[in-house]
UniProtKB/TrEMBL annotation:
The keyword Transmembrane helix applies. Residues 21-365 form the Major facilitator superfamily (MFS) profile domain. The chain crosses the membrane at residues 21-43, 138-159, 166-185, 191-213, 234-255, 261-281. The lineage of its organism: Eukaryota, Metazoa, Spiralia, Lophotrochozoa, Mollusca. This is Major facilitator superfamily (MFS) profile domain-containing protein. One of its GO terms (cellular component) is membrane. It comes from Batillaria attramentaria. The keyword Glycosyltransferase does not apply.
């Protein structure tokens, strides 16, 4: 056991430092939950129909009897859906009743009006992603899934190579910047790219914070590393519970504003506050030790001990004694040999993989 791990094992009960860390980590996790589930709102498809050509003040809600008459003359009634057609209009018509053509051929409409009773605008209404363009919404979800795949893979690799804090800083800046400009996309294709990059950054933020806190050999989580062993499960549960606040806030934002780009913008700006974590959150001691920077790791853990009122000298001596007694092999080979030595771990790992797949299917399918 290296000195940093030994010192971490004798730091004792969780104290003010751990509570502060847990509180700080809650903000980005909440905002990640906000960004993940706000797609339900910004990609929402309101009730809609073809707009009446030439009628500038046309609206989904019938304004009066004359407005209803114009709609009936221009838009066919869909018996299947029991409402006016969403994608077709009559080929030839005129607002003068006597000139209304008797030929009732239909053509694809090029403009639409939307029901604004629930949301005033969504990404769908901005770019008219209905009828022939309805598949674009699936493309945006595809961008999210690709982003999660890339982000999940790259985060662990980059965090192990460059450290947790640099990747964390880059990710929160990416969420703030890309998230902000995503509120003003010039086209749906550009928004696809924005969405892809944003999800990559958001995934990195989520896993970086866990990586800076877990105590597992495979760098997957961050908050739990500084927690005392008896509180690690509780800390992990609390972090996931804070994620749920994100969707609740996105719903409240939609109720208050009803405008999709407001929802998008509010999901991004709070990430700017996380830039201050560069000075507030220490680097992972386990990563420092893995890079041979044991003195820096010891310094971090001594600060933790000092913040919690623990006798630093005594803890340091205990760590040195344990280090002399036990030196562990680290890295991928150690994890591989550990799995071979304990096949039951492989079974448990596969069960966790299956459970996670089921959760993802239920959430995103």
């Amino acid at each position: 056991m290296n000195p940093a791990e030994a010192l971490s094992s004798v730091l004792g009960k969780c104290g003010p430092f751990q509570r502060k860390l847990l509180l700080l980590m809650s903000l980005p996790v909440i905002m990640k939950g906000y960004q993940t589930m706000m797609v339900i709102l910004i990609f929402d498809v309101p009730a809609h129909r073809c707009s009446v050509p030439g009628l500038l003040n046309d609206s989904y809600v019938i304004q009066d009897e004359s407005h209803g008459t114009l709609i009936e003359e221009a838009i066919p009634w869909s018996r299947e859906n029991d409402k006016f057609a969403q994608c077709d209009m009559y080929e030839s018509w005129n607002r003068t009743a006597e000139n209304v053509t008797r030929q009732r051929n239909t053509v694809k409409c090029e403009s639409w009006v939307y029901d604004e009773s629930e949301l005033k605008s969504t990404l769908v209404t901005k770019f008219n992603l209905v009828c022939d363009k309805k598949a674009y919404r699936a493309h945006f979800n595809l961008a999210s899934m690709i982003g999660k795949l890339i982000g999940s893979f790259l985060t662990g690799v980059l965090c192990d190579r460059f450290g947790r804090k640099p990747i964390l800083l880059i990710s929160v800046i990416g969420c703030a910047v890309i998230g902000t400009i995503s509120a003003f996309p010039p086209s749906s294709a550009v928004f696809f790219v924005y969405r892809l990059v944003l999800v990559i950054c958001g995934t990195a933020v989520y896993y970086s914070f866990y990586v800076l806190g877990t105590y597992f050999q495979l760098s997957v989580w961050y908050v739990i590393e500084f927690m005392c062993p008896s509180k690690r499960s509780l800390a992990g549960s609390l972090m996931n519970m804070t994620w749920v606040l994100g969707p609740l806030l996105s719903g409240a934002t939609a109720y208050a504003t009803g405008v999709w780009w407001h929802i998008q913008l509010i999901s991004s700006v709070p990430f700017l506050l996380c830039i201050g974590y560069w000075w507030l959150v220490p680097e992972s001691p386990r990563w420092l030790v893995s890079r041979g920077r044991t003195d820096e790791a010891m310094a971090v853990l001594r600060k933790v001990a000092s913040a919690n009122g623990i006798n630093i000298q005594q803890a340091s001596h205990t760590a040195d004694d344990e280090h002399e007694e036990n030196i562990e092999e680290k890295g991928f080979l150690h994890a591989y040999r550990l799995l071979r030595k304990h096949p039951r771990l492989i079974v448990r790992m596969l069960i966790i993989f299956f459970n996670w797949q089921v959760l993802l299917e239920c959430t995103y399918a």
